[in-house]
Description:
This protein has two domains: about 5-170, P-loop containing nucleotide triphosphate hydrolases (Rossmann fold), CATH 3.40.50; about 200-290, Conserved Hypothetical Protein Ylqf, Chain: A, domain 2 (Orthogonal Bundle). It has a six-stranded mixed β-sheet, with helices on both faces. The protein starts with 6 loop residues before the first helix and ends in a 15-residue tail after the last helix. About 40% of the residues lie in helices and about 10% in strands. Helix 8 (about 200-215) crosses helix 9, helix 8 packs across helix 11 (about 265-275) and helix 10 packs across helix 11. The longest helix is centred in the last third of the chain and has 15 residues, at about 200-215. Strand 2 (about 55-60), helix 3 (about 65-75) and strand 3 form a beta-alpha-beta unit. It is of the alpha/beta class. It has helices spanning about 5-20, 45-50, 65-75, 95-105, 105-115, 135-140, 185-190, 200-215, 220-225, 240-255, 265-275, and strands at about 25-30, 55-60, 80-85, 120-125, 160-165, 165-170. The structure holds guanosine-5',3'-tetraphosphate (G4P).
Amino acid sequence: MNIQWYPGHMTKTxxxxxxxxKNVDMVAEIIDARIPVAxxxxxxxAIVGSKPRLIVLNRADQADPAGNRxxxxxxxxxxxxxxxxxxxxxxxxxxxSITIKEALKDQIARWREKGQVGRIxxxxxxxxxxxxxxxxxxKVAKRKxxxxxxxxxxxxxxxxxxxxxxxxxxxxxxxxxxxxxxxxIGLNLAFTGAVKDEVMDAETLACHxxxxxxxxxxxxxxxxxxxxxxxxxxxxxxxAYGYDLLERAARKRGFLISGGEPDTERMAKILLDEFRGGxxxxxxxxxxxxx
Length: 291
Ligand code: G4P
């Protein structure tokens, strides 16, 4: 699902989450491991408060392994439990229940002392669109559709989903939004396809992506498009550097329009598709240092 902006919904979603928090023991916040800053709702810490939190670094398969390690350490240093997953294949997902129960072991022991043996642990799942929340919930609950109620006996109540005999999930009602005001955050969401491409034309977005990759992952760019990266100095005005790279890549691919000019529009779409499809490699576009 792509993001569209409906401001009124955020207040409603926030109120609903705040009300539902009373019914859960932990919050699992799913984020996109490629963009761990941009893929978080800016108010999530204030909304969730002191409730124990699991950060699910989803799309870990698409992110740079060094980036995953750095972010895991960063979140753990701040008291969060962290799980790396690839919800598409299910890698890491089997650790979800064990990880939750380990994180809540003191709480579970207290329940037991009070005679609440076998009390079901309840976890709320939150995440902005496109982090892979539905895929994750389906995988963790071993079901095919994200719609609650599709499989009789599996769901308990409206948005509750049973993971195993001791763990229930509550899917967030409504939609949590990222922070749109910051240009870099908007770009990172657009690069990964979280924001509809109509928000910015593909060519401009691809120029930004070329510049971002040339700075962060020059080897991947050189290898994929057989580019000699020209020196950056003096070329950074108004995306000129990114446009130059787009033209070079289009020429290398033989994408030309009449008159022999490079077909930068076609190249832009290819770059975005290949980046999103993982053909260029694994990338982490935000590092903990940038927080
Ligand atoms: P959302 O609920 O958070 O909005 O996201 P959703 O689960 O719908 O996932 C969006 C897309 O991302 C889906 O691809 C899904 O398969 C893919 N995806 C989710 N998690 C991961 C992950 O950890 N790794 C990878 N590589 N992909 C992931 P799609 O193209 O919409 O569908 P499909 O082609 O997979 O069927």
